[in-house]
Design a protein that fits this description.
- This protein has 18 helices and 26 strands.
- It starts with a strand and ends in an 18-residue tail after the last helix.
- α7 runs parallel beside α13, α9 packs antiparallel against α16 and α16 runs parallel beside α18.
- The chain folds into three domains: 238 residues, Aminohydrolase, N-terminal nucleophile (Ntn) domain (Glutamine Phosphoribosylpyrophosphate, subunit 1, domain 1, 4-Layer Sandwich); 190 residues, Rossmann fold (3-Layer(aba) Sandwich); 144 residues, 3-Layer(aba) Sandwich (Rossmann fold), CATH 3.40.50.10490.
- It is globular.
- The chain has an eight-stranded antiparallel β-sheet, with helices on one face. The chain has a six-stranded antiparallel β-sheet with strand order 5-6-7-8-12-13.
- The chain is of the alpha/beta class.
- Helix content is 36%, strand content 23%.
- The structure holds 5-amino-5-deoxy-1-O-phosphono-D-mannitol (M6R).
- The site of 5-amino-5-deoxy-1-O-phosphono-D-mannitol has 16 residues, from α9.
Length: 616
């Protein structure tokens, strides 16, 4: 939920920290701060409530002094309101130690009492300051930051990534990871730490994910890793697959606008190399083995938010093609229902960040109960793929805007590839059908480019609707999860009450919401392959129109049946009905973004949200 960065080197520590925070601000943006050990050996720090810009403005007036060792933090508040005093870094040991934290320390109250009894004082309401004071206290008894830090992390419970520095060891940052991400960046005469590679990708592409319960000691020339017991551990280096420019706006007014425009690339890049001669083969699935896939009796998808809606879409395709029953469960509900799982249950987690705590816990639960786990993830080196038996990476590129767009279509792409791979292995589709569906998938990027051209129409519509208090979304079959996603995007970006419904459910209650002028988006399925479903949706439209609803239909080009009943029609290119979600979601993403623009809202950093939800 928070973004952290650490740097030891001579590049201009404050600049490195601020640019690392800028690229990680999507992780939390209610306060930010930095601390540097200055060249004359004291800590210079600044922190400010509000977005990172508030800290940057503060530094322009009261700069932090130069130094070669520093840490920075951007916060999503858990303990304590987003005010200056609760922002990180927290200082301890008479201002000689600074510490930042991502996560939640569950036993903070007990340690706080102990520290108060030992005569320490606190200036914030945070659990983080408790960790800072504890480390400072232990530095005084052990005389050494590394030893004190190791002792402290062994006392803490909950989820934490901690970074600390102390003036007595000016070229050193110590860091620890427990249930929260930490990545090392290897430079030349300089080294970095971050919550993700975005923290340092402008400086190095050489990275490694720190393992669970490991401690890192970072200097300009060395990176030493141990476990919490002090035993040496090693890191597995990987090459970051994208450039710093990929996480810049690149001339777009917002990250959201840029990322929506990248939907076609997200599908193309995720498909690339996985369809060969009309047949889908995902090399990463060899980790599971064909025999295992042939014997799978059930798939359970675990995910949250938008990723769970991608799972709902994928379930239709996997069931239809590979004939494996698929349940989609919200990660945070999954383990508490004591799910029935066994060795032939494949648990597929979906997570853009790969760090969502609820999903991570669901994956761990599944492994502990004997299931195989497969991660669909967009972030190299993230925790969830590391905890899984196999991973299919989506190649959507970095997604910076907090609300997910291109990662969603990339997740559906990965699920469709999984369905086609499994269908081939299990022999449930013949070669012609496999090739036809693979070709449909490969045709999606070009069709998405066409949908992007409806942007100005959608923007106009959003402007007209900027005063609307509530919007409903209806869909059937694969259109249902798209209705859910359309509603979520509108809630997140425009703070408008929005609900998505299965169109067939309408008359079981929600139709009572329909009143004169109520806007309703309807995702109309193609009549070409599923005449019955199409006819049912048209009759749903008639039912609500008769009660005063204002209909905005998303329908395929040439669907004349919808025209008499729709106030607005957004046309999408023809596609096999199973592939329509790719095309239908794009106008809904654009609509939510444009309506938020029309209301003057920040589309990249909506209120109260964080991109990566690393607390349960
Ligand atoms: O990183 P993840 O894909 O695991 O995140 C899951 C959800 O938190 C995420 O999709 C959330 O719903 C977004 N705000 C959607 O825009």
């Amino acid at each position: 939920m928070c973004g952290i960065v650490g740097y030891v080197g001579d590049k201009g520590t404050v600049d490195v920290l601020i640019s690392g925070l800028k690229r990680q601000e999507y992780r939390g943006y209610d306060s930010a701060g930095i601390a540097v050990i200055t060249h004359d050996g004291h800590i210079s720090s600044a922190k400010k409530a509000g977005k990172l810009q508030a800290l940057v403005d503060e530094l322009a007036v009261r700069p932090v002094a130069a130094g070669a060792t520093g840490i920075g933090h951007t916060r999503w508040a858990t303990h304590g309101a987003p005010i200056d005093a609760n922002a990180h870094p927290h200082l301890a040991d008479g201002g000689k130690l600074a510490l930042i934290h991502n996560g939640i320390i569950e036993n903070y109250a007990e340690i706080r009492d102990e520290m108060l009894a030992a005569g320490h004082e606190f200036v914030s309401e945070t659990d983080t300051e408790v960790a800072a004071v504890l480390v400072g206290h232990l530095v005084n008894s052990t005389g050494d930051l590394r030893t004190a830090f190791a002792q402290a992390v062994n006392r803490l419970q909950g989820a934490f990534t901690l970074l600390a520095l102390h003036v007595d060891e000016p070229g050193l940052i110590v860091a620890a990871r427990h249930n929260s991400p930490l990545i090392v960046g290897f430079g030349d005469g300089e080294n970095f730490l971050g919550s993700d590679v975005a923290a340092f990708v402008a400086h190095t592409h050489r990275a490694a994910a720190v393992g669970q319960d490991q401690i890192v000691a970072l200097t300009a020339d060395s990176v030493t890793v141990t476990d919490f017991a002090g035993n040496p551990a090693s890191l597995e280096e990987f090459e970051v697959a994208w450039d710093a420019s990929a996480s810049d706006k690149g001339g777009w007014p917002s990250f959201m606008a840029k990322e929506i425009s990248e939907n076609p690339d997200a599908v193309a890049n995720t498909t690339r190399g996985r369809v060969v001669d009309g047949s889908v083969t995902i090399p990463e699935l060899t980790e599971l083995g064909d025999d295992y896939l042939r014997g799978v009796s059930r798939i359970i998808v675990v995910a949250c938010g938008t990723a769970s809606y991608a799972g709902l879409v994928g379930a239709y395709a996997i069931e239809q093609w590979a004939r494996i029953p698929v349940d989609v469960q919200l990660s945070h509900e999954f383990r508490y229902r004591e799910p029935v799982i066994s060795a032939d249950t494949l648990v597929v987690s979906i997570s853009q960040s790969g760090e969502t705590m609820d999903t991570l816990m669901a994956v761990k639960y599944a492994s502990e109960h004997g299931a195989k786990t497969l991660s669909i993830c967009n972030t190299q080196g993230a925790t969830i793929p590391r905890e899984s038996d196999a991973v299919i990476y989506t190649h959507a590129g970095p997604e910076v805007a907090v609300a997910s767009t291109k990662a969603f279509v990339a997740q559906i792409t990965a699920l469709y590839l999984l369905g086609l791979h499994a269908a081939r292995v299990r022999g449930t589709l013949d070669a012609t059908e496999l090739a036809r569906n693979a070709a449909e998938l490969e045709a999606i990027p070009a069709k998405l480019e066409q949908v992007l051209l409806t942007g100005s129409t959608v923007a106009q519509l959003a402007k007209w609707m900027s005063d609307t208090p509530a919007v409903l979304f209806l869909g059937r079959h694969v259109g249902f999860p798209i209705a859910l996603e359309g509603a979520l995007k509108l809630k997140e970006l425009a703070y408008i009450h929005a609900e998505g419904f299965a169109a067939g459910e309408l008359k079981h209650g929600p139709i009572a919401l329909i009143d004169h002028g109520q806007p309703v988006f309807v995702i109309v399925p193609s009549p070409r392959k599923s005449e019955v479903i199409h006819a049912k949706v048209i009759s749903n439209i008639q039912e609500i129109r008769a009660r005063g609803a204002r209909i905005i239909a998303i329908a395929e080009q040439g669907d004349a049946a919808v025209l008499p009943y729709a106030d607005e029609v957004i046309q999408i290119p023809l596609a096999d009905p199973l592939f329509e979600p790719f095309l239908a979601v794009l106008p809904l993403q654009m609509f939510a973004m444009e309506l938020a623009h029309a209301k003057g809202l920040d589309v990249d950093q909506p209120r109260n949200l964080a991109k990566s939800v690393t607390v349960e």
